[in-house]
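Run Ribosome assembly RNA-binding protein YhbY through structure prediction, thanks.
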Amino acid sequence: MLTGKQKRYLRSQAHHLNPIFQVGKTGVNENMITQVGEALEKRELIKVSILQNCMEDKGNVAEELAEGTEAEIVQIIGNIIVLYKESEENKQIVLP
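Sure, done. The structure for Ribosome assembly RNA-binding protein YhbY is below.
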């Protein structure tokens, strides 16, 4: 689990990032979870945007992605989810 201090730090790191995944009306599926997992391994910190036509609640979408990829939800702001997972091979972010 991340501490408040670590989440603040990650939010500041994520501020300039652009979302690299979009969740649409089909919601979250296995393929998306796999791709998000691979992106997290490469980047550690990513943003996912939820489109207007997504039928699922954004909290549920965030939970599904976090559980499927074993990542931490850093923040849900508007229709953007920020996810963090420590990389095993490409560690770049040093948490405070």
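The mean pLDDT is 93.
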